[in-house]
Specification:
Strand content: under 5%
Distance between the termini: 19 Å
Largest sheet: none
Shape: rod-shaped
Helix content: over 70%
Structural class: mainly alpha
Number of helices: 2
Order of helices and strands: HH
Length: 109
């Protein structure tokens, strides 16, 4: 592939590895947001509007975090799967090129 371009598949895999590490942290964050911040409405006080609004805001934030962490998780999985497929395709192409260069270099057809 001297006249073409080269893709650093190792760097692609390194990016996926870093994203998977981030994904683990997001999973922990999502679990914490979902299960370790459970409150009841009385935790903010009772019988006044601000307590109800604060409780509602807390519930909305839990839902927001959960939804976005799930979306990021899905995005990272999709990117990782596609990157793996691209890396495998580039590696197969490189292997084919090396094999054909050896065949040509050894005088075979």
């Amino acid at each position: 592939m001297a006249d073409g371009y080269r893709v650093n598949t190792g760097e692609l895999e390194a990016v996926v590895k870093r994203l998977r590490t981030l994904q683990q942290g997001l999973g922990e964050c999502g679990s914490t947001a979902k299960y370790n911040t459970v409150l009841v409405s009385d935790d903010f006080g009772a019988n006044f509007d601000e307590a109800k609004k604060l409780f509602g805001a807390h519930a909305q934030m839990q839902q927001f975090l959960s939804q976005h962490i799930q979306e990021l998780d899905s995005l990272i999985n999709d990117f990782g799967d596609k990157t793996h497929a691209v890396t495998a395709a580039y590696q197969a192409r490189e292997d084919d090129f090396v094999a054909s260069a050896r065949t040509i270099g050894s005088g075979g057809a």
